[in-house]
């Protein structure tokens, strides 16, 4: 996947304040505050920054964490992951594979078939509903 590179100031102009804080500065929205944490609408979740398709609603589950959670990304290239040692702990950060937007973190406590829980900030996503 070709990388989308853009200066931080250009992102600041295009995104809401909350999206910029989360997606470009690595922030987190409050639990249970996001638009998609309890959404059951079928569709594809895209990156709010660049539009890359990231997660299918078929992989979404209620983790009880307060953030939308998925057991797998749409494709292996859709996301990248890296070690995150912030806040005095080790976690695996998840970023958009195209624009490097911070999406959230992945944990090894999800359901079958992967056993993973991609815990993603709603503000980093844009749901495109499936047509009926």
UniProtKB/TrEMBL annotation:
Source organism, top-level taxon: Bacteria
Molecular function GO terms recorded: peptide-methionine (R)-S-oxide reductase activity; zinc ion binding
Catalytic activity from the UniProt record: L-methionyl-[protein] + [thioredoxin]-disulfide + H2O = L-methionyl-(R)-S-oxide-[protein] + [thioredoxin]-dithiol
Enzyme class, UniProt record, top EC level: oxidoreductase
CC cofactor: Zn(2+)
Stored Pfam families: SelR
The keyword Mitochondrion appears for this protein: no
Active-site residues (renumbered): 119 (nucleophile)
InterPro entries registered for this protein in UniProt: Met_Sox_Rdtase_MsrB (IPR028427), Met_Sox_Rdtase_MsrB_dom (IPR002579), Mss4-like_sf (IPR011057)
NCBIfam families recorded: peptide-methionine (R)-S-oxide reductase MsrB
Protein name according to UniProt: Peptide methionine sulfoxide reductase MsrB
Organism: Pseudomonas borbori
């Amino acid at each position: 996947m070709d990388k989308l590179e853009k200066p931080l100031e250009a992102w600041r102009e295009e995104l809401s304040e909350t999206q910029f804080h989360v997606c470009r500065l690595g922030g987190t929205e409050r639990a249970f505050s996001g638009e998609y944490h309890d959404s059951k609408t079928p569709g594809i979740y895209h990156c709010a920054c660049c539009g890359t398709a990231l997660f299918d609603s078929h992989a979404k589950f209620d983790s009880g964490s307060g953030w939308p959670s998925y057991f797998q990304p749409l494709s292996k290239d859709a996301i990248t992951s890296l070690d995150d040692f912030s806040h005095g702990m080790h976690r695996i950060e998840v970023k958009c594979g195209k624009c490097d937007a911070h999406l959230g973190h992945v944990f090894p406590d999800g359901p079958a078939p992967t056993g993973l829980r991609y815990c993603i900030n709603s503000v980093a996503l844009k749901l495109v509903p499936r047509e009926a």
